[in-house]
Amino acid sequence: MTRLSRPLDDKTVLITGGTGSFGRAFLRMALTEQSPRKLIVFSRDECKQWEMQQQDPLFRDERLRYFLGDVRDGDRLLRAFRDVDYVVHAAALKHVPAAEYNPTEFIKTNIHGAMNVIDAALDRNVEKVIALSTDKATNPINLYGATKLCSDKLFVHGNAYSGAHPRPSFAVVRYGNVLGSRGSIVQQWKAKLDAGDHELPLTDPRMTRFWITLDDAVRFTMHAFDQMLGGEIFVPRIPSMSLTDLGRAIDPTVRFREIGIRPGEKLHELLISEDDARRTLRFDRHYVIAPEGLGERFATLSKLQQLGGTTLPDGFEYSSNKNDEWLDTAALRRLLERSGELAAAGAVPA
């Protein structure tokens, strides 16, 4: 990923959902590689906040503040955002089957919560806000993806409410599956291997996914803070992998039990649709989807071209099965070993 120019130095940064996998990695990198003035962990679970502080002395750093609250509560966000410079909005409900069964809860958190974050940022004159998104927001076929698409559009067009003022600016970072995140397929398969089950459930052997490490997701988000003009959707150029290769990287002797694609699940994931590609520019290691209808003060195609972006060919779409960068079994195994995921799985040697 692009080397950072330390965008968090001397900034007060708040992260919603700060006790999650991304939040912890973001805080760790901010504390060890940059010099923020203050870091605020905003989340609704006091137990997870306490566990963070007990499990790692880094999370008892004097620059850290732990703020209990829910993004559904606009008044609480308004209080938390006082004197905040940057916001990372990572709080979301994410489990696809749970969304299908509990749609109103996902709407309250992922859509109404996004609206509350935007309103609080506007009212507290926050400088920059980045919302985290997902490949499932592109041409969504499930409720979770639909709520994240709504969230993306809310954040992009939240810039319009800044009016003639220079702040706040809103942008979105969208990426695929994260290695090392809580509840990932690697963790699910690890649990089965640890229990002695070497026949892993596989929805479809053709299935492909985008793949990014947790640290690269954090670095890319920090890079977006440094680069954003307002209204962009930043998409990293990341490799694809097949789920069968992933299983064999964890355990070369593994067998698969095909269970069929679940409701709301895609065979391949999409980060940039063909329609979005018409207003997308390619940079060295990422893409930027330009906003529509925000005016010249924000990110426009012409401004992005001046920064070195190049247009994409007609018919382009960024999908996991048509990617030009792949992780095979050997590359996946090396990645799992570097991250410590493979050793923890108790996998047999290749």
Would you give an account of this structure?
This protein is α/β, with parallel strands linked by helices and 350 residues long. It is 37% helix and 21% strand. It has helices at 21-33, 46-55, 74-80, 96-101, 103-123, 143-158, 185-194, 214-227, 243-250, 274-277, 301-306, 329-339, 341-345, and strands at 12-16, 38-43, 64-68, 86-89, 128-134, 169-175, 177-179, 199-202, 208-213, 233-236, 240-242, 255-258, 270-272, 280-282, 286-289, 310-311, 318-319. The strands form 4 sheets. The chain has a 10-stranded mixed beta sheet with strand order 3-2-1-4-5-6-10-15-14-16, with helices on both faces. A 3-stranded mixed beta sheet has the order 7-9-11. A hairpin with a 3-residue loop joins strand 14 and strand 15. The longest helix has 21 residues, at 103-123.
Computed Rg: 20 Å
Question: Portion of residues in helices?
Answer: 25-40%
Oligomerization state: single chain
Distance between the termini: 29 Å
Total number of β-strand segments? 17
Descriptive tags:
single chain; three-stranded mixed beta sheet; alpha/beta; 13 helices
Summarize the structure.
The chain has 350 residues and is α/β, with parallel strands linked by helices.
